[in-house]
Write a structure and sequence with these properties.
Helix content: 40-55%
Number of domains: 1
């Protein structure tokens, strides 16, 4: 299911101290700075999907539900590094790099992303499986030749 990420998705991806920085920045600016970070992160994955995904792309601003957590790691990093004023931890930076790497693998086809809602998932598996071939090994056992031992 394709859906638009919300601020609640952003909150699920953020840590407590990062959340405090986000709330302080929101109050100081009088608006929610996370919305732009979410929009930019969604753009990263939508661009990757346009490049490497063969299925139908959802409406503008939406992502498949299983990609939203990865997009939120990018959004939190954008927020913290850009406007939030909190230092970006090594763990947060690694989550960001992992999410970007996933988007790159989708874009260049190394990760064949399949939307769980695609009809191809319901297709029956192939009925023809390769059959193993068993060939007996001939052994010559006599006084002159003891091959196979």
């Amino acid at each position: 299911m394709w859906r638009q990420p919300t601020t609640d998705d952003f909150r699920d991806a953020i840590l407590e101290d990062e959340l405090l920085a986000w709330q302080e920045a929101s109050v100081a600016e009088g608006k929610d700075p996370a919305a732009k970070a979410i929009e930019n992160a969604v753009g990263v994955f939508r661009a990757a999907l346009r490049s490497g995904y063969t299925g139908v792309i959802g409406p503008a601003g939406t992502l498949p539900a299983d990609l939203i957590p990865n997009a939120m790691h990018i959004a939190v990093y954008y927020f913290l590094a850009g406007r939030g004023g909190a230092a970006v931890s090594d763990g947060r930076a690694q989550l960001y790099r992992d999410a970007l790497d996933m988007s790159r693998r989708i874009a260049d086809g190394r990760l064949a992303y399949t939307d769980p809602d695609d009809a191809e998932q319901d297709a029956a598996p192939s009925g023809s499986f390769p059959k193993p071939a068993f060939r007996p090994k001939r052994r010559l056992l006599d006084r002159q030749s003891q091959s196979g031992l």
